[in-house]
Amino acid sequence: MHLVTFLITAFESVMLFFAIIWYQSRPSEKARGRYVILLILLIQYNVYSGLFPDVHINIPIQIQLILAYFGGISVSMYFIYYVYKALELQRLKTIAVYGSIWCLFLPFIIFFIIPYLITGDADFSRKLVVIIPFAFTVFYVYTLTKSVWPKIRHLPSGIERQETLGLYISVLLWATLPVIVYFDGSQVVENGITNMGFMIMSVVFVRSAIFKSREDFAKLQESKEQLVQANETLLTKVKERTQELEIANQKRLNSFINLMHETKTPLTLINNCLDDLMQKYGASEETDITKLNLVKLNRNMNNFFDVHKLDRGIHIYDHSINIDFSEMIKNAIREFSPLGKRKGIIISSDIDEDILLKADPEAIYRVVDNLMENAIKYSNPDGQIYVQLKKDREFINLTIKDNGSGIAEEHQQKIFSPIIRLITRKEMFRGWEWALL
User: Fold this and answer.
1) Which of 92, 177, 189, 289 could form a disulfide with 84 if both were Cys (CB 3.0 to 4.6 A apart)?
2) 402 has which bridge partners?
3) pTM of the model
């Protein structure tokens, strides 16, 4: 291989390396992929024409010569297709798809391989094979010129015009290949002239890639700035909308609080009337239950106000108060007994006396109320509920046990989540104990 051919091959190998990287970074750009294929064919053409024929290579001379000439034919066929796709000229479609097969590939088989294998005369086959490709090349260059020059004239000066012009020059230099082959030019002349056009095209391609990368980077920066501005605008709108929603929510909340305040007045009147009736006619089980539920309703009203205080960051619990836990559980049982009776549920209890607890009474009441209500709600008709309150050294154990459908084991971790409604099933284990330690 001549030094010039080696240097050209090395240059194109480096270009191939970077072209593959470019294509991998943007696989959607088919033009980069076609350029990679073109470089691969150019390198194999230079290798074949530079090394073959050589008696020192352990390949038959006939095969070496066929490979050397086939390298030129293959790169020529693909180059015609490459130019057609790069320039997007429909007039070249038929020539690119069918002309290269009929005027390059078939003549190579008919006028070179067959005569050379029969006669063994490489010079005769070489001169014979270039006749049809030469005529085809002249016709192709003429057709390309008529199509591409109007396009070049109308293109504004810039990278696209340089690409088109560089590609056209590459075609003109490649068109000299049949003439060089006919006169059996030296390896340096053949590879130098034919590759010169491709090297020009490669330089233009690299410049084009650089300019496009700069344009993409500039567009990316512009998009980034626009995105930042859009985010700032969006954040402003979100803040404004959030403030509007907060104001609207506060108005609704204030209206609801006013309604609750107004509701407490009739509840107080009802409670006072009930006290007068109990004082005048004496207390009964029905009046006691009514009294307990009025107290519960007032507590529920206060619960709502407590939630409102929590939203405003106001502390609502005071756990330094001593309460009679035994009496609280007894009152809860009395309060829920009528509801249990209507479902045929029997509530039994075992409560130690005088168990005192230091905690906020409203907080503990809410826990007990919720446990008792759920025990009745999810017990089967004619079921049983067992309430037990025991003191064990430093612990106070409260157990509320029912024989309802229970909670599946996989859902038991969710019982401390707020507003969770689990679907019960009869086949779930029965008998669920709630323990307050």
Assistant:
1) 92
2) 385, 432
3) 0.51
